[in-house]
Amino acid sequence: MDVLPLRPGDPDRLSGYRLVGLVGEGGQGSVFLGEGDDGARVAVKLLHARFSGHPKARSRFAAELEVAQRVAAFCTARILDADVEGDRPYIVSEYIDGPPLARVLATEGPRAGAALDRIAIGTITALAAIHQAGVVHRDFKPANVLLPPDGPRVIDFGIARALDATGTLSSTAVGTPAYMAPEQISGARVGPEADVFAWGTTMVYAATGRPAFGQDSIPAVMHRILNLPPELGGLTEPLRDLVLQCLSKDPAARPSSQQVLVRLLTLAGSLPQAGSGSQAQPAAVLTQGAAAAEADEVRLLPPPVTPPALPPGFAQPGGSYPPHSPYAAPGQPYNTPPPSPYAPGGNVGGASWPHGAANPPPHGAASPPHGATSPGSPQVTSPSSGRPGVNGSGGPRKRPNVGVLAGVGSAALVALVLAGSVIAVNVFGDEKGGKDETPKTGGQMKMVLSRFYSGEELNPSQAGYGSSRFVTKQLFTGLTEITPAGAVRNLLATRVAPADSICTTWQIDVKGGTTFSDGQPVTAEAFVRGWIRAAQNPSGAAALLMSNIKGYAEVSGGRATAFSGVQTSAARNRIDVALDKPDCEFDQRLADPVFFPVPPSALKIDNKPYNAMPVGNGPFKIGSYARDKELTLVRNDAWGLGKARLDRVAIGFAADAPTVGRTGFVAGAYDWAEIGADRLPSARSERGLLTRQSSSMNYLVPITTRGPLKSKEARLAVSYALDRRAMSEAVFGGLYAPAAGLVSSAVPGFGRPGACPSCEKPDPAKARQLAEQAGLRAGTRLTIYARELPAYQRWAQLVRERLQQVLGWSVEIKTVEISKDEQLRKAVLGKDSPGGLLTYGWAPDIPSGYGVLQPLLGGDQVATESNQMLNFSGWRNQQFDEALANALKDPRPATRLNSLQQAEKLALDDMALIPLWSYVKASLASDKFTGLQMDYDGDPTLATAARK
């Protein structure tokens, strides 16, 4: 903020302070840059002369001073001097030499890494100090956070108030709309929980550059705050999980500011040792919070999980591995951390973590078409579907050293009557003004899709992995969905839980009162009817996702008409499922279309009229359909989860949908267009580009049973020789994230720093040393088997160039057709094969390490010329297989994850696969719509989209 010259009439001296410039002016007073007799700079807030004789104005000014003086100077601006009784009341505060967070974000973009962690700790320290003083800030937002070199500071207590005896404030709400808590908007009594909510929204803004509830019209923003989940964008763990807790609609479900601070200090390894955990003293915690906020390299890391006891003969890897703390369905957390002061029942400073504060899941989610290969798209092998996750944000940026004064004063307020309450709205907040973008009901959206593959239809039993899957999700709603963080969230299931200690039996309670679009009830029986129908499709995803349900083989083989392991209870609207073997991740399968319900009219799998024009229970139903030409979806007003806003979705079909769609999008003919992998470099700067990191991965598969890569040292030499970031830049415009392990960081619990040292950066010297240890010298012959897709050919060439340059090897590329599995297997696995490397893509069917590791490296999955297994590497490891088996029968999320992480480490230490990167789903979305994002499969969220 610029310091302006003094105006005519402005004082040049006040008490013992010389005023040298004007910083800003609010409705209550002006703020000047001042200097003391010792030359120290200060901020001087002077009450407007016109209010000097106004008793109420003087009283408010005195109240601001009283509030500010009550707050300990932890990450706030200290009060140095004041006179509120004289002719010209003034308050002198500490000068904060740093820009507002709002300005930094506007000029430099979102924060990430240590810069974001430092802001989080500093600002919550300030709020904890404010609340400890019995004060509520009431207008916490990016404009009131300053970023000096010594750590963030929170300023402007102009509308702060002391709490009454009940710990709350009156129902007259004040604040800036995008950062106001639901209780502020609705006129309920306001306490410190409102500041915690505002802290959560500010952290989202700091990490993404966008408010969590939008920044369009005031009524639209307030509607989202009251009724819709936040949009967290690229905010990552472990901060993301905590922010979701703070953004609970229910104030009682939010942690206190002190508890948030303790949790952050715990994650940063900075909690005071003398009184850690539930015994930590508030003053010590505040002191440590301020110290951590000053540190340049403070980082938040997920809490460690103690490895579980392993069976005899299973070596315990050294150390423990921190889990990723993903979102969970309400009441069903995915990862249970070790006991801590911020867990339910914990206590810090006399306050307990709110009961029932389960991690609320975000809405929306995304994934690539699985197995669908449009020209230029990466080829991904999967029996079913891949699961992308959340795209990360960039690294920290340098802050400009700009002097800004604390306590600029309260912004002007304007009254707004909403829901019967008087709302005082800050019209000079840091949101940008703009046209009215309130979501409107009605209108049409246009897009183009790839044509269906042979055998695919518009129903759950025959949906494929691309276009048909997307359309089926619009026509049907299932028991659960996968959130952007890769966790399970209930939809029409009210409860999904194992009924025994090793997860061989499951109970699923179904929401009552919903119907199909024809009025037929959606019951437990309707779901099982859909399961049986899907099992009758020999080429569908049920072959993988349902194979462990007792009786599946009989149903799929036509020897039975029902699963022997599935029973329904009409009275309870419940499904009881018995499995052939333990599977504590069975609930993650239920989001797939093969588990969707169908009405009685569906009949058997060979009912062609239903297959082509199905009756569903989703947000849309079919208006008209001409296969491979056009499809019209219209709103289904009988949807059991609300009502879509769009009237219609017009879909065209094309053989090369990415090219047609992108051209049409630029011309204004389409509102959504998918970007093929080969077009990513040119799409980075396009308006409306949406990206999401995927759980799908690209690998080099080393043949470990023969040839030059038979030894671990040879495989590690290849990994250390590669420059993954440069390769991604050359092939994918840098949008594909270099791998941090065998499992994508989009999968909860993976992508941990240090898991794969050879993946982090190239080390040519170490690569040559390892190659020499393996007996591989210059001139060593190596074959790379590359799929025929352009992207695969390109990165195979880059691998060849790198291995020739770094190791001096003689590398040959052999092209194999993606559609000819027999040819591929013979070339790579045949008795005459020299071994080498295979370019490979994999999309896991569930967001789990098991879904990646077992098919690709399981000892029972070793590929041969004649089978259909996918462990082309041929690698076997008994400890690895035991770790995977332990994971599936462990109902405890934390220890299950730890077993999977151990399995990944065993494979990485031996470099059984050479990970390259997880790929990104990219699309163009029109700015004419709001609520239009990428869902878990990378598809547009039609159910939440609306015209502005």
TrEMBL record:
Residues 301-398 are annotated as: Disordered. SUPFAM superfamilies: Periplasmic binding protein-like II (SSF53850), Protein kinase-like (PK-like) (SSF56112). Residues 354-372 have a biased composition (Low complexity). It holds the Pfam family SBP_bac_5. Residues 301-311 have a biased composition (Pro residues). PROSITE patterns: PROTEIN_KINASE_DOM, PROTEIN_KINASE_ST. InterPro entries: Kinase-like_dom_sf, Prot_kinase_dom, SBP_5, SBP_5_dom, Ser/Thr_kinase_AS. Residues 374-385 have a biased composition (Polar residues). Transmembrane segments: none annotated. Residues 17-267 form the Protein kinase domain. PANTHER family: ABC TRANSPORTER SUBSTRATE-BINDING PROTEIN, PERIPLASMIC BINDING COMPONENT OF ABC TRANSPORTER. This is Protein kinase domain-containing protein. It comes from Actinomadura fulvescens.
